[in-house]
Each structure stands twice: as structure tokens, then as C-alpha cells.
Amino acid sequence: MSDMYNLLEQLCHGKGVNITQMSREAKIPRSVFSELKAGRTKCLSNKYLPLLAEYFGVSVDYLLGNEKEPATDSDGLTEADRRDIAIELEQLMAEIEQSGDLMFDGDPATPEAMESLRNAMEMGLIYAKKINKEKLGK
Questions:
Q1: For the chain, which ranges sit under pLDDT 70?
Q2: What is the b/e burial string over 65-80, where b = at least 16 CB atoms within 10 angstroms of the residue's CB?
Q3: CATH second-level architecture of 3-63?
Q4: Which of 129, 137, 14, 1 is nearest to 70 (CA)?
Q5: Nearest one of 33, 50, 39, 30 to 2, comparing CA atoms
Q6: What pLDDT, on the 0 to 100 scale, is given for residue 15?
């Protein structure tokens, strides 16, 4: 297993996704990561590195191991901030699911509606984190 695959697993964990979900969302074939995990490739091609850097909000240099710490994203959030948001988001979604059926206009929420709700809550959590960081001067 390559160092890059281990780093990608850590980034996925911090974002609250698995490799398969990340590959789907980043629009990168899953087989690319299977080759990396098996050690048949040591590094991803230049075709995929920028996509992953954007997906995780880190630099390509960080993915290549040339930087020890990921730089903050253009929105000012660190990887730790994103991890905190992902954890809080998972807790909120779990509470919603445990509270019973969510209804919209008398119909049970579709998976698409739940995904929209999740995205809206994530945006709200990101905004709140940014505002709090500004207030605290961090």
C-alpha cells in the first residue's frame, strides 16, 4: 500500500467519507485507487491530483508529500475544521434519522431530499465555523 493511499484514507476519514464515495464524488474511477492500494502504482497521475486537491481542499504538493501540513483553503478552514464539521454533520444526520420519518408535503423524504438537507446543513456549519473563527481572531 502506498503512502499516498494512506494519506487519501486519512483525508477521507477527516471528511467523513470512504474511498468509494470519494471516488464517485470526485469523478475519478475507483480502479485508480485500487491500483494505488495494491501498490501497482505509487502515485496518481497529473490528471487526478488536481481533482483530489480540490475535493479535499488541500494543495497538490500536500498530496505528493511535499508539505507536512495542509494549507488552509481559500475559505480559511483547516483540515481539522473540516473534520469537526464532518463529525457534527454526521451527528445531526443521525439525530434526524433516529427521530422518525422526515416528511415533505405529506410524503416521506426521498434520498435526494435527504442529500439536499445534508448539503444545506453542511453549508450552514461551514458558515458558522468561519464566522466563529473571525470573531475569535483565529
A1: 1, 68-75, 137-138
A2: eeeeebeebeeebbbe
A3: Orthogonal Bundle (1.10)
A4: 14
A5: 39
A6: 84
Report yes or no: 22 and 94 within 8 Å, Cβ to Cβ.
Answer: no
Comparing C-alpha atoms, which of 17, 76, 27 is closest to residue 50? 27
- Rounded to 5 degrees, what are φ and ψ at 115? -65, -40
Unique residue bearing C-alpha cell 434519522 = 97
- Mean pLDDT, all residues of the chain: 85
Structural domain spans, the chain: 3-63, 79-136
Phi and psi torsions of 71, nearest 5°: -70, 155
User: Does residue 90 contact residue 82 with C-beta atoms inside 8 Å?
Assistant: no
Residue listed under C-alpha cell 485500487: 34
Q: What is the 3-state secondary structure (H, E, C) of 72-116?
A: CCCCCCCHHHHHHHHHHHHHHHHHHHHCCCCEECCEECCHHHHHH
Give the residue among 46, 54, 66 at the shortest CA–CA distance from 22. 54
Number of H helices, E strands in the chain: 7, 2
